[in-house]
Amino acid sequence: MSRIGRLVIPLPSGVKVQQKDRTLFVEGPKGKLQQAIPDGITVAIEDGQLRVERASDSKIHRSLHGLLRSLAANMVKGVSEGFSKTVWVCGVGYTAKKQGKKVQLQVGLANPVDFDIPDGVEVSEPVAGSLPTGARSMPMMAVTISGPDKQAVGQLAAAMRACRKPEPYLGKGVRYADEQVRRKAGKRFGAGG
Q: pLDDT tens, 7-43?
């Protein structure tokens, strides 16, 4: 039996779970989510707990068992607590702006890069600050992305990071707030041979 799949998911108060026609619906204070249930996997809702079971020990059913349990646990956590990721836009002249349902990043490219904000995802107004990097500080803007759907939050944050990954010499670029950028030493001038 899958070690992840056999764990039960406790349902916090205020979270409603329903199953209709091979679809799992989860509703809570932060929003509503739904997930298709693959064939061979069943979901049981009893005594304030959610249990995911599989029909057989075939390889496909074993892999889907743990996957659906993880997705269901993320849905329950998302509608009750929500997920958030903070992205830092670091560098001189690098800026972030929220314009309606879009986020615009100016990251040293010829044109600004626009990202559409998906439904159900909230993006905070960018907050300016500075990032200490060695002897001097670098300007930085923090953008917080939050919502009940872990995949949508992570996808928007990953797309923003992918437009200008952090470079290893000065650390300029777009990075996650909890990301450690491995730094490299630059050229050294000295008495050489």
A: 999 999 999 999 998 999 999 999 999 999 999 999 9
Q: How far apart (Å, rounded) are the C-alpha atoms in residues 140 and 144?
A: 13
Asked if CATH classification 3.40.50.10490 holds for the domain at 83-176, the reply, yes or no, is no
The pTM score is: 0.87
Name the CATH code of domain 9-80 (choices 2.60.40.420, 3.90.930.12, 3.90.226.10, 3.40.50.300).
Answer: 3.90.930.12
Burial of 192 (0-12, 13-18, 19+ CB in 10 A): exposed
Domains in the chain: boundaries: 9-80, 83-176
Phi, psi dihedral angles at 126 (to 5 degrees): -60, 140
